[in-house]
């Protein structure tokens, strides 16, 4: 994430200074999209799926024994969201967090509700732009048999899951809303592997570039990748705690069966963290290599320079002596003078070469 | 914060060496401003607001069921402060901390009183001066239904809050002094986002400068920003503990409703810490880039130098040979001598170029 | 492990995104090898050994009082593995982990089953290839008197253990499946000492190379070894937790006798970790030495260069003066002019030498 | 503290190897000074002060209800100290620690006695010497109503405290021996602020020197200050634990009133640690600046060198060509030959300048 | 410890791969020395001392109320050791650890036995060899009133202790086997101070060398000392835990009196660790100084080089111009031509000097 993006987020935050905590504020840059609500209500035998467009009293979904998954796309119709929050007893602070989409991953436990924030990661897909990881906030409100999910934009990552629900494939229809929440988090975490693979590809390319032609361009790309990896680490690290506290947590509606799956999710996140840490160390090793290969180049250029200077500066000086125009100079009239001088120069050059040979510079 | 400011504070501290702990001392540099006391007394239905100028027995505010917010501006009239402290049963050590305004953020629990120190941050606003974050101490003494706040100077950051109290907007009038204390801390923390944004702006400018024209000026600004970020981190880090221990603490008059808001505040502080850490890493990456781009420049200058020296030193030597004034030199009389020599020089130059080509220096 | 290997693994992972957790997927690159099942059933007096080829109801092994060690080689016949898992009540997630052979070492506790993953390490044996540590996943499922082990390939590292079982040597026949699991882990950890020895050998060779002839080759090998050591650390570190939690764990079928052996194993792993950490520090010291010896070389070449330039540039300039062709130049006609000029050059050279002597450059 | 001082201490230590733990040994270098014992016995109403010269049975001070402060100056009369230790039931190991004055700050709890070691810090006051912090050990033995303090030398830092005792000023006379111990520790810690201020002054001077004239002198002073800061940190860090465990400790004779003061002391120590950490980071930033400003200088000298070499080497070569003495050279007889050659040289120079301009070297 | 020593140890380890845990193996390099057993049996009144040569039933020493100290020198007669182990109920794994003398310091608690490993440190005493710390393993098996100590070689470090036992000096005869074990550990730790002193001496010498004549020799010695300090830290760090867990441990036969002495031992170890850490930081500071002083030298040589090149290259070029042999050159016939040219060169030189003066290079 670039510094500019960071700054934009921070400005948005302090613009709210002085307002009531829990107040919902329209951020200028984001267009107000309509809220779309999609409902899937299911148990082992039946599955009802529909879009909710008009006004509904959502409280009925709390009282049925079926599992209801209510997916809300678009978070800028505050009136509708407030009504929804009221029906499900969502705390104003939670609603504020849902709307302010730069939360770090976290889990907040309320009396009979869990509020989970995770971040969906994408790669920026413009081909010429520098490598950049972008993220979208996925908020989940989990009650005993209801799961609410909030997305900023329509994304298709939950479609395979919907398909599994419709197909009665696997045990997803037999287990409750807690397993559904797990399955959604698992889908999101699975995307991280894709991000890691593309990062690894960047690292490989960079590594080859460093060997082929080290230069400031490579340095800048090391810098960019380093910032992206730091950002990635910041996004994933708290997720570990989220999965961990879900698994070990006290919420009564997380069943033991689901806890086993959450342990698996926890393992995946640790695997991802390990990879990210590994990338960080590889990248820092690349910087070391870059720096020391530059030093090595300076060294070998220095060697060439010193050898040529030490060889030719004395010789040129000797030619200079006999290039002087004094009338009376010894040896100028000597028929062998030229050859004697060349011989002397040969001896000087030989001494120099021997000197450099002994210093292992040749 | 500059080293000089640091030193001034330390001198003030040891000047007090040997005095009774809890003794209040006039620091020379600060003018003795009068103490102004502003009272807001409210419950859900009524709100009384007035300035307290004469002598008052403050103990009555402890016995009413309304919430009293007593804001004290100016901390140099020790007599008045001591009387106030006596009425509210404030420990002499707390009073000493209120007056010595370089405390780090902390929370001290007493039997039925909480003493909280937080730091309000500003940017120095003189346009030409180097970037510097300044801070002011806000002390809060919280009892069951009374909140005392102490400020060095009149600041307007609490005005939006006063307005909310007057407007009966939100639940601030329905909740107690604990929520009021939270709301004040939240106002202060909201200002941190502004500081972070301005820091981010500095980092962006610096980044561009490093790419455009790296030099000692940029280096000095890296150094300055680094010190400011270290200072910022030192100011915010203990705040995390303050919010955390308030939220999890045992003080009986912190209601569960307020604890939820304190959890939210805790999240904000962690978000700020994350950003500060991120800035630190970005800055340290910038220093790396600066250093390695200098190395790279040295390298490419070295290359130019070596090539020119290795090319022209031998050639000039050859011209020197035929510039000698010996009477008997072979070839001087040869009509093609000049062209043969030029040819030899061409071969030497070609060899050198081939050598550098193979070394990938060209 | 190279970046390319890493990337291949990651791609495999996200290819599974959207699938049911616990689903088994054929990875394209691995040929489907048949599953071979080898059984050793023993108690203190008897030992039965046979290959299981046809279909068997494995549940009978759970009900006997003898210890059964079922070693499964090959993990790509999912149908057979699923049947086996069903018989032994292995959770689908565990089976998924057995099949996806890039798990980090871990221990998962289920009600009456322990699932242990450790990694067997090899050195790549192609003589010309860069040094690379490869690893294979060994999965163990431990129940009260049954131990299942899963290997990707037939390896002979468990043969000494089988021999010990057949020989009735030592107490391995008297102790239960928990001791057998320990003994297998111990065999694997013993191989780590071999890896460490070969790594140490590489470090010694590298150290000598750095002293004899530092260059980019040495630098690249430092980089390679550094990545291998990082990878090794990542593989061994979680093993410490595995041994620790086995030893302190609550699983009822781990006897006190075995716990003593597990403490010993834990000590071995810490010894290995210590050695790895030591290697890391030695390697980072080598990089420091490499960098500073290059700086030192640059310094001494610089010295030679400066001395020659400072000595001969002024002298050559003097010869240049008397090489000019002005008609009226003082001293040209002087019979001692040549010698006086040589004398002046001698004085200049002497001054230079004295200057460098005082600067300790000679 | 210099390496030499360190070494002296270590030698003293191992000279004792093989002796009985608790054995008291005369260190050669320290002259045997007589032990001076000063007693202040007080309660809220009375205060008796006197020097104890002859033999006394100290046990009586344990049985009175007054508070007794027995200050022992000089620690080399082992016989007298042993008698004293016997009267107060001081463990031989504690007496050994009192006599070996290079302990790190610590607190040892015995059944009804606390043994506290803190270190008094001074700056070396010889004007020409390098900056060095020196320290003296203050040992305190605290029982319910008796405080013993041991000093190596007569120092006046406790005088203000004595004055406060005599004046009945503050509550020092009303509180017990535990408060007295706190007040002594507080006096010592107050002196640390002075040390920190002088360190800060050194840092400021150094910072200016680095900007004005960076050189090996500044580097050596960075090194010295760094070692002093490390030493300071080592002396203060354990003090934090001392204050913390006193405050939270279980000793029955530490009253709640004193615990509040100890919390304040704890805050002071954390403030000091923060400052020391800050100094460390500032100093490490200075080293970075020093190194990169040297690199920057090398870079700009390199630039000058390359430009001059690339400009004048080719030109001088051209002059060399026409300085050769061949009889048949084209153009020598051309009346415009000189000007044409000068023109060619101008074109070469112009090309070079253009080249450097495009490379941003000019 | 050198890399070669490390490697030898590792080879020995994996040579045992596949063997029964607890199996005793003859390491080729170590000659099989006879086992010598020395017994001291004492209580407050009596002391019996003798060498045990024949076969004995050691179990009787477990049943007496006296304290028995059985010191075994030589660990290669496995038969004798196994018999001894059997008599005292020593676990096979413990015996294996006694025989494999490269354990890290540790404490293993068994039901009624403690097994302690510490390492005795020596300096290599060959005068010309590089500085190297060597270590020997001391194993202790402590039961209620029996202490077994195992040494590889006859060393005299326990002699002072034997003398103290014989002399009835101090309380060593009144306290039990636990105090004896403490006293032995204390003797070993006392030797560490000697090692530290010699290390400090090396550091001082190195520091002087770095100031006098920095070169690759100094760099190598920094490297060697760094490795030794790392090794020292690895040997001592676990000792802290050993002393700590002995002191706080649950073993019933460690008396409260001895625990006080163990706390003292713990303090000594922390003092040693502090010193080692300090050395590490001093050494890393030395490396910084070395590197930056080389940079500084490069910088000042560069300055000299640039000044000479920038001064004389243009001047020599000017002489070259008037050295050309054109027939028609302006000014050659001018009687003042020579002086005018010299004047022009003076102006060029003056400009250069002014330029360097303004750049603070002169």
Question: How are the secondary structure elements laid out?
Answer:
Five copies of one chain form a homopentamer.
Chain A (H helix, E strand, L loop, with lengths): L2 H13 L20 E7 L4 E6 L7 H4 L3 E7 L4 H11 L3 H8 L6 E4 L4 E10 L9 E10 L3 E6 L7 H9 L9 H36 L3 H33 L7 H68 L13 H22 L4
Parallel strand pairs in A: 3-7
Antiparallel strand pairs in A: 1-2, 1-3, 4-5, 5-6, 6-7
Helix pairs in contact in A: 6-7, 6-8, 7-8, 8-9
Structure description:
Five copies of one chain form a homopentamer. The longest helix of chain A is centred in the C-terminal third of the chain and has 68 residues, at 256-323. In chain A, 56% of the residues lie in helices and 14% in strands. In chain A, a hairpin with a 4-residue loop joins strand 4 (106-109) and strand 5 (114-123). In chain A, helix 6 runs antiparallel to helix 7, helix 6 packs parallel to helix 8 (256-323) and helix 8 runs antiparallel to helix 9 (337-358). Chain A has 362 residues and is α+β, with helices and mostly antiparallel strands. Chains in contact: A-B, A-C, B-D, C-E, D-E. Chains A and C meet through helix 5, helix 6 and helix 8 of A and helix 1, helix 4, helix 7, helix 8 and helix 9 of C.
Uncertain runs of chain A with pLDDT below 50, 5 residues or more? none
Largest interface comes to: A-B, 71 and 65 residues
- N- to C-terminal separation of chain A? 49 Å
Biggest sheet details of chain A? 7 strands, mixed
Work out the oligomeric state of the chains in this entry.
homopentamer
Which geometry of chain A do the CA atoms define?
elongated
Return Rg of chain A in Å: 35 Å
Strand order of the largest sheet of chain A: 2-1-3-7-6-5-4
Measured by DSSP, the beta-strand proportion of chain A falls in 5-15%
Quickly count the helices of chain A.
Answer: 9
- Give the SSE order of chain A as H and E letters: HEEHEHHEEEEHHHHH
Average pLDDT taken over every residue of chain A? 86
Number of strands of chain A: 7
Structural class of chain A: alpha+beta
In helices, the fraction of residues of chain A equals 55-70%
